[in-house]
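look at this one:
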Amino acid sequence: MKHWWIEYRSQWTESPMSCWVHLPTDGLPWYQSQQFEPPLPQPIDGKGYPIYFVTAGRFTFQFSSLAELDQCIETLSQKILPPTVFEYEGKQYYANRHWLSRLPGKVKSWRDRQKAIKVLVKARESFKEELASLRYIT
């Protein structure tokens, strides 16, 4: 059974991780910004903007870019999860706004994260292979 898939949308769709991974570089608030690092994904010719879904156990992760998937794997791979209170440009963002705090508790245990990481890594490889043959609109 395949635990991951890609859906395509006519417009870019934000995921729970988007504002934590794609950081604005033009000095504007995230929702007004036009420049990000890493950049927002580009549409694929004839398909649109990809949205990546990965089901691990009974939870389905959603990503708007492979950069978000990479960040998720990196974060969940840490034995002790990082705090979800961050300071960015002099403002503090608290736990309930961070993508990690929005995950259900059952996903956060080390044992469950180890299982999820294996699925996420396999999905990442599969997505990369699938996207290699597609053309991006520039």
